[in-house]
Amino acid sequence: MKKSYLAIDMGASSGRHVVGHFDGKHLELEELYRYENGPIEMQNSYFWNLPGLWSHVQKGLTAVGSKYGSSLCSIGVDTWGVDFAFLGRNNELLGNPYCYRDPRTDGAMEKAFAIFPRDQIFANTGLQFMQFNSLYQLLVMKEQNSPILEMAERFLMIPDLFHWLLSGIPCNEFTNSTTTQCFDPQKNDWAFSMLEKFGIPTSIFKKTSVPGTILGPLQSSLAQQSGILSANVVLPGTHDTASAVMAVPTASPVGSTDWAYISLGTWALMGIESTQPFVNETVSAFNFTNEGGVGGTIRILKNICGLWLLQECRRIWNQQGLKTISGQPLDWEDLNQWTAAATPLVSFIDPDAREFLSPTDMPQAIRQFAAQTDQTVPQSEGAILRTALDSIALKFRQVLEMCEKISGQKIKTIHIVGGGTKNCLLCQAAANATGCRVITGPIEATAIGNIMMQAVASGDIGNITEARQVIRNSFDVIEYEPQHIAEWNEAYEKFCSILKK
Fold first, then answer.
1. Residue 201: partners with Cβ closer than 8 Å, 6 or more residues away
2. In the list 234, 263, 350, 351, which could disulfide-bond 305, CB 3.0-4.6 Å?
3. What is the pLDDT of residues 225-270, one digit of tens each?
4. Which of the 8 DSSP states describes residue 90?
C-alpha cells in the first residue's frame, strides 16, 4: 500500500506543492501546484509577500486535497534561511518579513564587530559571516528602535511561520534556527550570552525542535477548506539545504567526509556532512558555516552565489526587450545555447563579490568587474554568461580545497542536487574545474528530502541511511568526468590571482 506525503517546497524565486508516493521501496513525485515568488518593494525596502504566499499555500492544499485529501499522511514546509517574523501577545503576527536582500544591513557587520569582536561571534555561533544573517537584521531593528522588536514575544523563521499557520503550534525548527548566527552549535542552543551583549531580547528565542517532530493535525478550518482530513503537520529539515542534503544519493555512512555536496539553485551551498561541528580558526578563516542537518548531522558549508548571476542576466535582457529569433522572451535554453557557443575561460569574476549581491543591471556589473580587474571585457550575451558560469565552477574548486583542509580528507566525488543540475554546462564545468567525478541528481532534492523526513517520522523508513537507499533506487543520476584538466588548472591560477586584487 502506498503512503503519500506533501512537501511544500518554498524557494526564494518559486514554490511548489509536491506529493511523494512511497510503496516501501520506491518514491514517486507528483507536482500538483506551482507559483512564482520574490520580494516586493515598499518604501525603498524589500519584503516577502506573506499574505500572497499564504494564499498560494492554501490554493496548493486545495489542489492536493481534491486528489488525495483522505489518504495524505502528513505535510511539511521547507524554505530558505535567515529571514524571520515575530509573534506578539496572544500569538498575533507582527508585520511583514523583510527579505534578506534588503539593503538595510549594509555596514551592519562592522557595527556588530565594534560591539562584540568578530572572532567571538564565530566562537559563539560557528557561522559564516554574511551581512544578511538574521543577527545583523536584528541589530538593525534594535538600532532603529523597531516597535515590532519591542512588542515581539516569539521569533519564528519563515518555515516556522508557515508551520504555525498550518497547525496552530509555534515552534523553532533546528536546521533553520542554525542559519541565524544566533545559535551555538556546540551547546545546541541559542547563543544567549552573545545576544545579551547586543541588547537583543533573548526571551523571544524558544527551545528548538528537531526534524521529524510531529506538531499535530492540520488546523480544522484548513482541513475542511482543503479536504485534507487526517494529515499531520511534520517538521522536515525546514532549511531547504538541509532537506536537499538529506536527498543526496550517497552510499557513504551518514556524517562521512569523503564526499562533498552542492545544492545548486539561486545559491550554491557547498560543503561536507559531519557528525560534529567544526568551530576552529581554519573554519573561521575560510568563512565556512556550521548549520544543522537532519539525523543529528552538521553541514559544514559555504554559500556561493549560484544561478542568481544567470537569472539576473536573463531578467535584465527580457526587461530590455531582448528577444529570440521567434520573437519570444528569453528562456533557459536560449541562455544555454549562447553560453555553449562562447569561448570558455576568457574572463572571470568573483561570484561572491558584493557587486553581484543585488545589482540593478547584472550584465553591466559583470562587464565592470572585468574592466576593473584588467581583463577582456565580455561584450556578447554568450560571453557574459560564460564568464559567470566558468567563475562559479572555479569557485567550486576553491571551496572544495577548503573542505579538504577542514576535514583532512581527500574528496573524489561531488554530488550536485537541485534544479541547477539541469544546467549541464555548469555541471561539466564543475567536474573540469575540480578534477572530481561529479554526480548530479535528483533534481527535486529539497522536496525529496522533505518527504523522506516525513516518512522517517511516520516510521515508514527507519533512518537517513535507509532513506538515501530509497532515493538511489528511485531516481536517475548523471555522471560527469573531468575534461581539459590542464586548461582548467591554468584558468584556476588566473582566477585566484584576480580574486586577490
1. 149, 152
2. 351
3. 999 999 999 999 999 999 999 999 999 988 888 999 999 988 999 9
4. G
Q: What is the pLDDT of residues 348-404, one digit of tens each?
A: 999 999 999 889 999 999 999 999 999 999 999 999 999 999 999 999 999 999 999
Q: Is residue 227 left, alpha or beta, with left meaning phi > 0 and alpha meaning psi from -120 to 50?
A: left
User: How many C-beta atoms lie closer than 10 Å to residue 162's C-beta?
Assistant: 24
Question: Phi then psi for 5, rounded to 5 degrees?
Answer: -130, 150
Q: For residue 190, what are the CA distances in angstroms to 20, 158, 295?
A: 34, 17, 19
Radius of gyration for the alpha carbons in the chain, expressed in angstroms and rounded: 22
Count how many Cα atoms sit within 13 Å of the Cα of residue 282 in the half-sphere of its side chain: 13
| Entry pTM | 0.91
Which residues have a Cβ under 8 Å from the Cβ of 458 and sit 6 or more positions away? 3, 5, 73, 74, 234
Omega of the bond leading into 329 within 30 degrees of 0 (cis): no
Backbone angles phi, psi at 311, to 5 degrees: -60, -45
The set of catalytic residues is 240
From the list 441, 426, 366, 425, the residue with the least C-alpha distance to 393 is 426
Nearest CA to 11 out of 303, 311, 266, 235 is that of 266
Amino acid at 457: A
Cell matching residue 136: 545583523
CA separation for the pair 440, 354 (Å, rounded): 29
Task: Indicate if the alpha-carbon torsion angle 393, 395, 401, 402 is positive or negative.
Answer: negative
Strands (E), 200-256: 208-209, 214-217, 232-234
Which segments within 112-229 are labelled E, that is strand? 154-157, 172-173, 183-184, 189-190, 208-209, 214-217
CA angle 404, 409, 415 (to 5 degrees): 70
Cβ-Cβ contacts under 8 Å for 295 (sequence gap 6 or more):
211, 246, 254, 463, 464
